[in-house]
Design brief:
alpha+beta; Deoxyribonuclease I, Chain A; six-stranded mixed β-sheet
Length: 305
């Protein structure tokens, strides 16, 4: 009787794992069809979690006939090919050229923990910082940094205010995308250009469509740059989304995957530092009171002649 019960429990466990693998495979395939429906596109943001589930689930079935796992081989292999290249950062040698430290921070317009943000800036000491969801509170709270940074700011009462803080001189122009949101196009005296952005969140069909159109416009602006380029901000998108292809086509490829949202357990990376140069490091900063974590990168830039 005990053996029968044990056999039944084992069979139920096998069925549960197979169902988990089937559900994961379907979710991965749905994400690959994100160009056709915005709901499908939401599934594309979790490819790294699908790969983790595949590995754990298949590992738990290693003692069953391999024929039972063949059906999952194609989605597992395709998922691994999509995810693994983004998990390792290929570091550029420090001796190659100048290293510039940059950071992007989505402040969250309702966040009031200026003390945490100022501590992060003091400890990480970035030379260029891009802020999103920048409002009057943050303009006042960060005004004490004006002796250390050149400041350009566009505070807004909604979630799309932007600011740029730089230790080096720069020239700025503002471009407005569909939906009326600004992006910042800057030229640094260090010899590179940068874009500061915060795109619409894909919370419904209309916003998802606008976000994709904004990405297309953003790619058009970026492709016009004649200098080394750095794009920083909250794209409300991940590298596996169909619409991210607009940036990939112009050479703004991610070099590493660092989850930045949400607090307290960051699961996906919707905040980005992208460049057509090389990157020395990319890491997640500490909690600063926002639902986003900061991202910090060291860029390897060519010397200015």
């Amino acid at each position: 009787m005990q053996q029968l019960s044990s056999s039944r429990e084992k069979k139920l466990a096998f069925m549960a794992v197979h169902l988990l693998l089937l559900a994961t495979s379907l979710a991965f395939v749905a994400g690959r069809l994100g160009c056709y429906w915005w709901i499908f596109d939401l599934f594309s943001h979790f490819n790294h979690l699908y790969l983790f589930i595949f590995v754990i689930a298949v590992g738990s079935l290693f003692f069953v006939p391999w024929q039972q796992l063949v059906a999952y081989l194609l989605p597992f292999s395709y998922c691994a090919a999509n995810v693994l290249p983004h998990l390792v950062l290929s570091k550029a040698p420090l001796s190659e050229a100048r290293i510039v430290k940059v950071a992007t921070v989505n402040l969250n317009h309702s966040n009031r923990r200026a003390d945490l943000l100022l501590r992060f800036i003091e400890q990480s000491r970035p030379e260029l910082i891009v802020f999103q969801e920048y409002n009057d509170f943050w303009a006042e709270s960060l005004s004490q940094l004006k002796d250390r940074y050149q400041i350009w700011q566009l505070p807004r009462n909604d979630s799309f205010g932007l600011a740029v803080f730089s230790k080096h001189q720069f020239e700025i122009r503002t471009v407005y995308l569909q939906g009326g949101i600004p992006i910042v196009v800057g030229d640094s005296k260090l010899g590179f250009s940068f874009l500061a952005v915060h795109l619409f969140p894909p919370i419904n069909s209309a916003y998802s469509d606008l976000r994709d159109k904004q990405l297309w416009e953003l790619a058009a602006v970026a492709s016009a740059s004649k200098r080394p380029l750095v794009l920083m901000g909250d794209l409300n998108n991940t590298v596996w989304s169909c619409s991210y292809g607009f940036l990939r086509k112009i050479g703004l490829n991610p070099v590493s995957y660092t989850a930045s949202w949400p607090h307290p357990l960051p699961v996906i990376q919707i905040d980005h530092i992208l460049t057509d140069c090389r990157m020395r490091t990319l890491y997640r900063g500490p909690y600063v009171g926002s639902d986003h974590y900061p991202l910090v990168a060291e860029l390897v830039l060519p010397e200015v002649s």
